[in-house]
Amino acid sequence: MKPTPFIQICDLEKSFPLKRGLFAHLYQQQGYKNPHVHALNGINLSIEKGEALCVVGETGCGKSTLARVLMGLIAPSKGQIYYQGQRIDNLTHNERMPFRKSMQMIFQNPYTSLNPRMTIFQTLSEPVSFHNAKLTKEQVDDKVAELMLSVDLNPDLSDAYPHEFSGGQRQRISIARALSVDPDFIVADEPLASLDVSVQAQVLNLMKDKQQQHNLTYLFITHDLTVVKHFANRVVVMYLGQVCEIADANTLFTQAKHPYTQALISAIPRLDNNAITPIKLAGEVPTPLHKPTGCAFQARCHYANDRCRNEVPIPMQIDVSTLIACHAVEEERL
Ligand SMILES: Nc1ncnc2c1ncn2[C@@H]1O[C@H](COP(=O)(O)OP(=O)(O)O)[C@@H](O)[C@H]1O
Ligand code: SF4
Ligand SMILES: [Mg+2]
Predict the structure, then answer these.
(1) Radius of gyration of the chain from Cα atoms?
(2) pTM of this prediction exceeds 0.90
(3) Rounded to the nearest whole angstrom, what is the distance from the C-alpha of residue 238 to the centroid of ligand 1?
(4) Averaging pLDDT over each range in 21-25, 277-281, 304-308, which range is the top one?
């Protein structure tokens, strides 16, 4: 019997009603009564304990929506999420509480994700006290000092406010806050994107160290494939709310098969002289207002044919660890 996945996501969909703005107006003029943005269109994914699973894809492909639905910050429109076999997407606020401790999120922007009116001590001690009501004041103080040290911050600075720290230091405080409740699973939504390149590696290494020290499982969202190379065990490539390819990181970088993955990988800046010519993608990611009739990537794909325009490709198991949704791969014409 197959072991229960640590986290399982089944047929997950999320659409947002489009109420205001130019698009809403234009669509209503065209007779669409109730236009929706289809941010997630049937995501199936399992995450194994202890792995660092990276999710990549261009802006607008649904990465943050996936993170927010997974964390219970917004409700899915359809589908289920299981945490160690227990369904969690339909829980009430109170029922969700035990999972809030196990599942933590690190946001993209450490300038907005920390409360500017709370000192670092308050930021870190609040979740510690909330989830461990029995701890004495001294034990909470010790835990805060320990957390600060664990992310290379001087505990003497615990009375300072977020604005007194640099971006990299603030993101380390966010990591400490996430770790403060001893989670099993961390969702990090582009945690390096707003940091200087010089501190990105520092924060990335810190997150990697924490994974090993605490046996953490990560869902790490990024659009930077160089980061993926350093961090991921496995990679999910998303396009317009769908999964294009799931593969081990090594396989993905050496033998990506999906045309979209190939284009992303060919665009990674390389230092050697034999740089692969980047595959040019025509146009931008379309706005996900309609569910596509065929492959979501068809308008930008060099291999699209009639089947691609009419039939949605179903993710297909290529080998033990690789899953690809592409007719051309299935037809072996790539
Ligand atoms: N609250 C919302 N209301 C309406 N549309 C939204 C909302 N959140 C996200 N979207 C839309 O859903 C799509 C996916 O967005 P997002 O998940 O933020 O993508 P990513 O993180 O990959 O850039 C985008 O077209 C975005 O405009
Ligand atoms: S299904 Fe067709 S359009 Fe989509 S990626 Fe494959 S070849 Fe391109
Ligand atoms: Mg995002």
Answers:
(1) 21
(2) yes
(3) 13
(4) 304-308
